[in-house]
Amino acid sequence: MKVGVVTFPGSLDEVDAQRAVTIGGHEAVELWHGDHDLKGVDAVVLPGGFSYGDYLRCGAISRFSPVMAEVIEAAGKGMPVLGICNGFQILCESHLLPGALIRNDHRKFVCRDQRLRIENTRTPWTSAYDEGAEITIVLKNGEGGFVADDDTLDRLEGEGRVVARYLDVNPNGSLRDIAGISNERGNVVGLMPHPEHAVEDLTGAGTDGLGFFTSLLESTFA
Amino acid sequence: MARVVVDVMPKPEILDPQGKAVLGALPRLGFSGVTDVRQGKRFELEFAGEITDAVLAEVEQMAETLLSNPVIENFTVRVEQSA
To answer: ipTM of the assembly?
Structure first.
């Protein structure tokens, strides 16, 4: 599959994301925030970083970039979209995902190998995992506290849309230990930790993150 | 020239870690009596012409779309009289 990775001004992890896409068995396509088309990609990754310097609110400016208009439209038609960290913030600002991400409750930037439980394997990004799989990937954020009102949280839980949950410690004050969620249809997934940094033995916490990028194949042929 | 001010505040039920940091710093600096601090943002929008109801309606839209995130923040819009 052709998987687009968007670079915004201030993105950090687009190269790692492209690399992860390739290792996952796909063709990585570079997309630019100013692009008005998605170059025929089958899926899109919004990478981590500090797009637009996190000015105003994380993801608030990126959400109105030309490429996001295309991403929002494609997501509405069912295209798989994965937002990692800043990408998750952009998806929330775009209202493709409910809730918001606020400054960590302890106010410090956190960078650690984080254990997670994959709770929803019905998304195109997580189908390679066994339900309940416990994985360790890198988490690094300053504003990663997931918040939403109780009704929204209950709905997310009730509909099985909590994709991943923090284990051992809650690193940023996210409500109900939520690390990642999906939209109603399941094609749009936002995740605060970074699977793209855990796809090779050489670096990072191992290869537990690779499933996010191999899942696309499985869901296509499922 | 006329100015419209938009104040954006985190909703009461949303944790405000920055406000808490300020609250914690005040007694260390010898200031007492403050029981809570919430930190928000203030936007000053300058307009060339008169502030009409239509302009204010548009500012409301700006505040709702870009200046605030309605999921976590409330905002107020007011015209600031020039001195």
So the answer is: 0.88
